[in-house]
Amino acid sequence: MPIFYDEKTPQPFNDPTVLYDLSDYPEDEDVRKGAAKTGHVYMDAMGFGMGSCCLQITFQAKNISEARTLYDQLCPLGPIMLALSAASPIFKGYLTDIDCRWNVISAAVDDRTEEERGLKPLSEDKYLIPKSRYDSVSTYISQDPGFRQEYNDVNIHQNPILKQKLLDGGMDEMLARHFAHLFIRDPLVVFSESVKNFNINENDNFENIQSTNWQHMRFKPPPSSEDTIGWRVEFRSMEVQLTDFENAAFSIFIVLLTRTILSYGLNFYIPISKVTENMETAHRRNAVLCEKFYFRKHVFPHRYSSRNGKGVLNPTHDQSASNTPKFPEPGPVEDEYCLMTISEIMNGQSSPNGFPGLISLIESYLNSVNVDVETRCELARYLDLIKKRSNGTWETAATWIRNFVRKHPKYEKDSKVNSEINYDLIKAAENLGNSDGKGTDLRKGLFEQRQL
Predict the structure, then answer these.
(1) 278: domain range?
(2) E strand or H helix at 295, and its extent?
(3) pLDDT in tens, 88-101
(4) Which of 91, 120, 226, 284 has the highest CB neighbour count under 10 A?
(5) Residues with Cβ < 8 Å from 374, sequence gap 6 or more?
């Protein structure tokens, strides 16, 4: 990962922890062939990625159709929530120039061969695979009326034999495409008993591939035909926070957003290639305030008009209208989205016809359901965190960690986080977690407000 260049960081920076003369294993030659890049922190073990923490939420849908809808509509939100929850600026004892863990894990578990990565012509392998098995989603799967084929604008490789079997068995094209793409990967582990004693009512072999495709969304079928667990969707991009209250706020925000999406039939589709671009943007230092992200401009179906003055969506008065969402006749896909700041996405744009903001949409949904006053006040505190995190009133955990290091008396402005700084940082984080930030400089307003 790129080093964060501070005042006294050596330029060029060459990771001093790399043992260039080591020759115990064949892989040790990699560093002499350019694996350890100038200006980067070199991490050569899976633990650097899978040792990272995250905040993942799984929703159970009422049926497969609803699960597919949630999968697609939450997909464009993945990069936004990654940047908003950024909490990972330090790796291998150095301040890096990123704020998030995602790409570190992606590289740490990237098992593609040189042929699959396109570094050599295909000979032994079958597919050229553009992404690691831990990466952003590459295809939408829902049959929503708001979907357009142009949104699946990435040419993905698929397992043709598997896809044909799925189609022959009655699966539709979009879902078959999704699973056929997952199954271009090799299994990481194979259990002999699962192969020898194959049971059509069990899905161990399926999960062997499904659960090792770590995309930022996961579509999860029921565990088995006899299980009461239904169709689920997992939202996987967010970083774990330093306090329980923050983790609760992010979790509740996503839950409320799913209810709002389903209630209003919202459409967040943008081309999948733009979601991939957004994932890269989300990693940049302080992306929550300094970067813009592709996001859909108009998300309402026709049965709703614009917001009224109180932030409530107005249903149209056509009594004959169906409850099925109706969308305008499509124009160029490029006209459907634009670059927005995260504050605009969350809090809304100031222009009269601008995007109203996700928080406003959630509040409109809450106004339409029976929520008691006490619960509504508690939800308001959680939403207030999201609002103020997105507009910069309260900093991200990544910014707090970076500032803590740079202000530490033992920091030598050389990007290095020594053991003493590391110890003090861990103790400060522990204090935050145990006391929800009381008596600290981290987001004082948040914790003072909770005492009201």
Answers:
(1) 45-450
(2) strand 293-296
(3) 999 999 999 999 99
(4) 91
(5) none
